[in-house]
Specification:
This protein has about 260 residues and is of the alpha/beta class. The chain is built from nine helices and six strands. The strands form two sheets. It has a four-stranded parallel beta sheet with strand order 1-6-5-2. Strands 3-4 form a two-stranded antiparallel ribbon. Strand 5, helix 9 and strand 6 form a beta-alpha-beta unit. About 35% of the residues are buried.
Amino acid sequence: MKAKKEKWKIAARKIGETAVQFLYPPRCPLCDTVIPIERSPAVCDACRGKLPWVTEPACMRCGKPVGSPEREFCEDCERTQHLFEQGRAAFTYSGAMRKSVYRMKFQNRRDYLDFYAEAMVRAGKSYLSYWQPEVIAPVPMHWKKRAARGYNQAELLAVRISRLTGIPCERRLLRCVHYTGDQKELGRNERLRNLRGSFEVYAPVPCRILLVDDVYTTGSTMDEAARALRAAGAKLVFFLVLCTGKGKKSLHDTKSVLY
């Protein structure tokens, strides 16, 4: 009976999604032009070659491009003792992808999320097999930010990745209890100070956890989330994100923002 009810739920969701697609045709996540329904989620032909996939060589710890196969770690990971084990991203946070993420977050373009999730699973497939996370946990958003935006994009991505991989999603494993405001112009040290104590654990913690978020920059958010999870008993914390920064800007001070 329970299995039959679940099948009906899946069928109803698919019917609803199809109806929405006819009313609001799918659009390319990069250039926002309409694409055929049967090709969604995807990008248009013109944008397929513009996708800024992260390719090797990449940092062995955080997955940022490092530029040279002789380098194992990016500059940030060489000087920082991160609290997560390893992480990977699908794209660099640049060009049309950066604009796409902006529209998703600030113009309510949640229709891009299916494409994002599929790209993340594609980019992290071999790593997920190696990491074998027991649960997926989205990086939480403070209730004030969520109320202003209407949704937490990390949670929506985590739910979709769970469907694609079969890894359970624990949406309420972590909670953000400290409002930090806008941090995009801050360096790593300032972000760490703002974030300290921001996350609390509200559910039993397994040993191996996969954190999901949209963008990785300095790693301070992932570190603080990993700190809370480790304090609650987690042994290994990994992450998967849509975009990662390309590296350190050519500024000559230790407070340079990673982008």
